Amino acid sequence: MARLIPSFMDERTPPGERDVFNLLSAGPASWVALHSLDLAPWNRGLRTEIDFVVIVPDTGILCIEVKSHKSIVFDGERWHPKTIKRSPFKQASDARHTFYRRLAKLAPQFKSFPVVHCCILPRASFRLPPNLSVQPWELMDSSTFREFKSGTAFCADLKSRIKQSVAADINLSSPDHQLSTGQIDNIVKYCVPVQKFCPDARKEISQREAEIERILCEQQKPVLQLTSWNNRVVITGGAGTGKTLIAMEVARRRAERGERVALLCFNHLIGEWMKEHCAEERPALPNLIVGRAISVMADMSGVVIPDKPSQDYWDFELPKIIEERVTDPDFKAAATFDCLVIDEAQDLLARPRIWECLSYFVSGGLRNGSIALFGDLDHQVLTGRDSIIKALSELDESNRPVRWKLSENCRNYRIIGDTAVQLAGLTGPVYSGYLRSGGSVSNYDIYFYDDKEDQSNKVLQYLKEFRVQGYRQSEITLLSFRTDRYSIAASLKKAGYRLRPVWQSGKSTSYASVHAFKGLENKLIILTDAALDHREFHRDLFYTGMTRATESVRVLCHTESKATIMKWIMGRDNT
User: Residue 125, Cβ neighbours under 10 Å: how many?
Assistant: First the structure.
């Protein structure tokens, strides 16, 4: 009996793959067949899935593409039914070459071992006329498949097909020796981290799910249920309501179901943060692509970003290039995702060109595709409100997503959250409650500085106080209302103090602009350079900046702004 990995089929396995799986199970004991292999991204993160990889120790490795349709037709221009987006033969060939490149890179000792491919249509008859692209042994349709009386006969036919493929390819040669059990185990070991279904990982997955259920509050649990019951959802909520955490969990669960998922956002830093955290999860999920939306699309499209691109390049030129690229049917078939999960959705909805590009990367488009949007659509909208309203309206008309609102703050103490709302001048209830109990005046302070030197001294004083309290330097972040170049943090770094831009790893205190840090958090936040005469100043940024803190906030404002800011704190002027 052949060794099959995994040794079972789940309820989502297509019927054609079930048929092949059952016949392979009766193969020789020395054979190993890997089922449903989803390779780690190789070609710019594009889809590379192989239904079966069969290791025949004395002959070669066969990559099999299985189509379960009862009827398959190519009319000269396109494949039918429409669910077949690209040629199954090209899909099998591409998968075979990708598998070989990955194996040869990880284990060069197997470079001479032949890897070939074939396409099996267990339930469809397909006549293959003489052609220059597909060899007869690369196809097994239903008329051949149904003739096999046993798994032994089926496996003998597969072995014959491997030999024919090797003989016909001048770049391949038959192996001069049979792979040992140890060598086969090594190949399996290299493949296991990129398996879509790994039974040994179920215990670890269950433990992680139990932990996330414990962390999420009662109000947030229904969101995970909603996204499992509905393919189109829009989740709104204020800062600190757990949107990013839930978005990551939704993406993981969909990927664990075998779907190809994109977890994307607009902000570079939050994209990198999500990518790092998802990469730490076990088992690995190579069918989950995470990062900044525009960068992921550019990478998948093969676009080389120029040095120091202008804002117009990001907003207009690059989206145009991507739009042109995704009109290629072959590219679109390989690049689309089964599910699109968007964090901080308001930032992408506010940019119509980028949002339009994203629609091409989800199977079925925005009208029929599986989409989960998470965003603060009411409060963290600094620009593009009209575009957001229009995009949501169009989504409602064509997609009719299920909506859910998160209103309980699970990150901040009440004193920080309420003060942030007051300083930002937000109207209406932002939070229905705070899950974290405690917090006092010691968790919030505001200081009015006279000049640059005064602000610098106060920042250094705060840093010293926090270290005395036992906090690590890395648990402190300086956020400026100004760009990095003009921030007090940049001045201190230039003067020799140990500070680092937040995008650099390290143990020292980090700094960034409030804009750049949106979506992230740290224990201690020092908000700097708040001066009403600076053109970068935007009142709403108080809300964004202060709600990044899980412990304490310190706010540094210019003394000339004191009268106005005190009115805001007292709620006397919300204009």
Answer: 14
Q: What are phi and psi of 6, to 5 degrees?
A: -70, 170
% of the chain residues with pLDDT over 70: 90
Per-residue model confidence (pLDDT) at position 199: 43
The distance from CA 111 to its chain's CA centroid, rounded to whole angstroms, is 32
42-65 in b/e form (b: 16+ CB < 10 A) is: ebebbbbbbbbbbbbbebbbbbbb
DSSP string for residues in 137-178: GGEE-HHHHTT--SHHHHHHHHHHHHHHHHHH-TT----SSP
What pTM was computed for the model?
A: 0.71
Tally of residues, the chain? 575
User: Are the C-beta atoms of 279 and 369 separated by less than 8 Å?
Assistant: no
Report whether 369 contacts 340 (CB < 8 A): yes
What is the model's pLDDT at position 381? 59
* Mean pLDDT calculated for residue range 31-50: 76
SS3 562: helix
344 Rama sector, left if φ>0, alpha if ψ -120 to 50, beta otherwise: left
Tokens 């185990």 sit on residue: 185
pLDDT tens digits, residue range 126-169? 988 888 788 999 999 999 999 998 888 999 999 999 999 999 99
Q: Are strands 32-38 and 60-66 parallel, antiparallel or unpaired?
A: unpaired
197 has a pLDDT exceeding 50? no
Residue labelled with tokens 């932990």: 211
Asked if the model's pLDDT at residue 213 lies above 90, the reply is no
Three-state DSSP class for residue 311: helix
SS3 558: strand
pLDDT for 228-267, tens place per residue? 888 899 999 999 888 998 999 999 999 988 889 999 999 9
Instruction: Give CA separation, 391 vs 91, 316, 353, 377, in Å.
Output: 35, 18, 11, 12
Mean pLDDT of the chain: 86
Q: Which amino acid is at 515?
A: H
CA distance 549 to 523: 5
Phi-psi region of 425 (alpha: psi -120 to 50; beta: other; left: phi over 0): left
Return d(Cα 410, Cα 403) in angstroms, integer.
Answer: 20
Tokens describing residue 143? 């008329």
Beta strands 60-66 and 49-56, pairing class: antiparallel
Bridge partners, residue 543, by sequence: none
CA 421, 214, 437, 218 torsion-angle sign: positive
- Locus of tokens 């052609």: 131
- Give residue for tokens 């405690």: 438
